[in-house]
Specification:
The chain is an alpha/beta fold. The protein has one domain: 3-Layer(aba) Sandwich (Rossmann fold). Strands 3-2-1-4-5-6-7 form a seven-stranded parallel sheet, sandwiched between helices. It is globular. The N and C termini lie far apart (54 Å).
Amino acid sequence: MDVSKLFSLDGRIALVTGGSRGIGKMFVEGLLAAGAARVYISARKVEQMQETIEEFGEDAQGNARVIGIPADLSQMDGIEHLVAEMAKREDRLDILINNAGAAWGQPYLEFSEAGWHRTMDLNVKTPFFLTQKLHELLVAGGKGDHPAKVIHVSSIDGQRINPWETYPYQASKAAVIQLTRRMAARLIEDNIVVSSIAPGAFASEMNKAAKNAPDASASRIPAARIGTPEDMAAAAIYLCSRAGDYVVGETLTVDGGVVNASLPNMFADPAG
């Protein structure tokens, strides 16, 4: 058994939505480190996307290692634009990571319909319809010597309640976990493996507590630290590579033990 081949992504073509920053950028870095040939990213903010493209530079042949396609994936026309651009450039897609997401917090009695729709659309509708419309490219990716891979990014907030009044965010991430199972049951027929990653505390714009106060966040985590880019990259490499080919419909929780290894009141102040 050649362990190096278990985790290799040599020659793979990938698309990471919301790949210009935060956890999405961690995925991009991991895919490239594992040998991906090209990684496409989508984002609404063109300037930020361009900075990420320039940061990762070019391959030995002078081609950009990361290719950006601007798109607002909260809208169906944005989804269709991204799909059309991918079809122009590639005849297959080996890896799709549905990472783009939104959060919206308001007090219960004031919560707006706009916040509800924005969050549920981007977090639940978009992964389904983007994957559906990329189906032909993903089927082509699964016709080689490995299955194509789809990873939905859920959250530990879909596995347990957090204290913030982010109602549709928590509901949407629970929905993504169940959506992962149902899509996995259908897409495995086409040699497309669907799974999910549920991140815990990682420094990002979506998790400003971890970004701005990592020590305070770490005090509530059994592993006593927030996640690093290597932690997130490793999860993606595992699921996207040969190592994860038999992991179908699963949600991989990457949170330092918050969901599955926290004892009741384990971080309570003993002084009360």
